[in-house]
Specification:
This protein is of the alpha+beta class. The protein has helices at residues 6-25, 39-46, 51-56, 76-85, 129-146, 161-176, 184-192, 203-210, 221-236, 281-284, 299-308, 327-342, 356-365, 376-381, 403-409, and strands spanning 29-30, 36-38, 59-62, 67-71, 94-103, 115-124, 152-157, 242-243, 255-262, 271-277, 292-298, 320-324, 347-349, 370-374, 383-388, 396-399. The protein has 2 domains: 6-160 and 220-308, 2-Layer Sandwich (BirA Bifunctional Protein, domain 2), CATH 3.30.930.10; 320-409, Anticodon-binding domain (Rossmann fold, 3-Layer(aba) Sandwich), CATH 3.40.50.800. The chain contains 15 helices and 16 strands. Helix 1 (6-25) packs antiparallel against helix 5 (129-146) and helix 5 (129-146) runs parallel beside helix 9 (221-236). The protein is elongated and about 95 Å long. The chain binds histidyl-adenosine monophosphate (HAM).
Length: 410
C-alpha cells in the first residue's frame, strides 16, 4: 500500500481531470459506493474458486455486530449491488463509472499493489455489441488523450454460459488424461474451475494445454455473431486488435466479449485495462435479469506507463510568494494575500519569520513567478513591491487594487 507523495500527485490530478472530461464526452455518470461490502457479494460475483476470493481478499468480522465484511477487491460487484438496490435500471440502461482504491492481498511487485486504484466503467442494460465497441473505442481515445501509444488490444469471446459448460466438460475430459502430470493447482481446479487452468504460467502445464480443445470451437452462433459485429465496428473505427483465444479473465462473471489492453513496457504487470461482458451477473445477485459490459483500468499502471513516456505532472506552483517583515507588515500581508486570491492568483503567504534574504530564498524555491515584498514603507503607502523572480525585470511598486491585472502584463 503506497503513499502518493506531492511530487507524484500532480500526475494523478492531471489523470483525474482528463478522465472526468473524457467520461462526460461519452455520457457516463459517476457512481460512488462504499469501500466495504458484505463478503458474500464478492464471493458470489467474482467466484468462489478464483485467486481473488481464495486468497486475496481483506475480509474481517465487524466485532460490533458480527457481520462478515470485505474491503472491495474490485468495483463491478459493488456497482451491480448499488444498481439493484436503488433500482437504477428502472429508468432505463445506465452508463456509469467509479474510481477509487481497491484492495487485494497479492504479492507486491512493480505494478501490483495491495491497495491500488481503478477507474471502472460499466454499461448496464445494454445487450448489443455496439456497447462493447463503445467501451473499447473510448479507451483508445483515452490513451490518445494521455499520450499513451505503446499499448495493444487483445479481445476474445467466452460464448454463452451454455456453450461454456459444453466446453468445460470437454476440457475436463482432455485434462483428465494427464491427471498424473497436472500440478497441484491444476488438479485442484480441474473439477471446480477448469477454465482457470488455461491461465497457468507453469511451463509443464503450458505444454499440456497446447493440445487442449479450444473454447472457440464450442461457441454458440449468437455469441459468434456478437463477436463478429464487435470486430466490424472496431475495424470501422480503425482500432487494431488481436484475437487471443487464451484470454481468460481472473473473475468468473464474464461471458461473450472479454478484452485487455496490454503493454510490454511495464514488465510482468502489463495489463493496464481489462473487462468484458457479464450478462448473467445482475440476475445472479438478485436483480431483474439485464445484460451488462464494462472494464476497469489500473491507475498506477497507467501513470507508470505515462512516466515511461516522460510525462510529469504539473505541481501546484504559486503565482506569487508574499514576504513581509515587522508586525504591521505581517498584518498588511494578510490583506494583500487575500486580495490577490480574490483576483484569482495562487498565493503563498510566508510563515515562520526570518529576514528578507531568508524569505526571498523560500520565495525562489517555491517556483513562484513573483515575490510580493511588504515592509514598513509599503504598509504606510498601502502598496506592494513586486519582484519578478524568473525574468530579468525591474522591481516595481504598485497599488494593491489592480495588482493582479498588472502582474499579468509583466
Ligand atoms: P481486473 O482485471 O481484476 O478486472 O482488474 C482491472 C485492472 O486493474 C487490471 O488490468 C490492472 O490494470 C489493475 N489491477 C488489478 N489488480 C491490481 C493490483 N494488485 N495492483 C495494481 N493494479 C491492479 C476487474 O477488476 C473488473 N472489475 C473489470 C471489469 C469492470 N469488468 C467488467 N467491468
Amino acid at each position: 500500500m503506497n503513499d502518493i507523495l506531492p511530487d507524484e500527485s500532480g500526475l494523478w490530478a492531471f489523470f483525474e481531470d482528463t478522465i472526468r472530461t473524457w467520461l462526460a464526452a461519452y455520457g457516463y455518470r459517476n457512481l460512488r459506493t462504499p469501500i466495504v461490502e458484505q463478503t458474500d457479494l464478492f464471493v458470489r460475483s467474482i467466484g468462489e474458486v478464483t485467486d481473488i476470493v481464495e486468497k486475496e481478499m481483506y475480509t474481517f468480522v465487524d466485532h460490533l455486530n458480527g457481520e462478515n465484511l470485505t474491503l472491495r477487491p474490485e468495483g463491478t460487484a459493488s456497482c451491480v449491488r448499488a444498481v439493484i438496490e436503488h433500482n437504477l435500471l428502472y429508468a432505463g440502461p445506465q452508463r456509469l463509472y467509479y474510481s477509487g482504491p481497491m484492495f487485494r492481498h497479492e504479492r507486491p511487485q512493480k505494478g501490483r499493489y495491495r491497495q491500488f486504484h481503478q477507474v471502472g466503467v460499466e454499461a448496464l442494460g445494454f445487450a448489443g455489441p455496439d456497447i462493447d465497441a463503445e467501451l473499447i473505442v473510448m479507451c483508445a481515445r483515452l490513451w490518445r488523450l494521455l499520450g499513451i501509444s505503446d499499448v495493444r488490444l487483445e479481445i476474445s469471446t467466452l460464448g454463452s454460459t451454455e456453450s461454456r459448460s459444453v466446453y468445460r466438460a470437454r476440457l475436463i475430459s482432455y485434462l483428465e488424461k494427464f491427471c498424473d502430470d497436472l500440478d497441484e493447482d491444476a488438479r485442484r481446479r480441474l473439477k471446480t474451475n477448469p477454465l482457470r487452468i488455461l491461465d497457468s504460467k507453469n511451463p509443464a502445464m503450458r505444454e499440456i494445454l497446447a493440445g487442449a480443445p479450444r473454447l472457440f470451437d464450442d461457441l454458440d452462433e449468437d455469441s459468434l455473431a456478437h463477436f463478429e459485429a464487435l470486430q466490424r465496428i472496431l475495424r470501422n473505427q480503425d482500432i487494431s486488435f488481436e484475437i487471443n483465444n487464451r484470454l481468460v479473465r481472473g473473475l468468473d462473471y464474464y461471458n461473450r466479449t472479454v478484452f485487455e489492453w496490454v503493454t510490454d513496457k511495464l514488465g510482468a504487470q502489463g495489463t493496464i485495462c481489462a473487462g468484458g461482458r457479464y450478462d448473467g451477473l445482475i440476475a445472479q445477485i438478485g436483480g431483474k435479469p439485464a445484460p451488462a459490459c464494462g472494464f476497469a483500468m489500473g491507475i498506477e499502471r497507467i501513470l507508470a506507463l505515462m512516466g515511461e513516456n516522460g510525462a510529469v505532472g504539473a505541481h501546484a506552483i504559486p503565482d506569487i510568494y508574499v514576504v513581509h517583515q515587522g508586525e504591521a507588515a505581517a498584518e498588511f500581508s494578510w490583506k494583500v494575500a487575500e486580495s490577490l486570491r480574490d483576483d484569482g492568483l495562487k498565493v503563498v503567504l510566508h510563515s515562520g519569520g526570518g529576514n528578507f534574504k531568508a524569505q526571498m530564498k523560500k520565495a525562489d524555491a517555491s517556483g513562484a513567478r513573483f515575490a510580493a515584498i511588504i515592509g514598513e514603507d509599503e504598509v504606510v503607502a498601502g502598496q506592494i513591491s513586486i519582484k519578478p523572480l524568473r525574468e530579468a525585470a525591474e522591481q516595481i511598486r504598485v497599488d494593491l487594487a489592480g495588482a493582479a491585472a498588472l502582474l499579468g502584463n509583466i
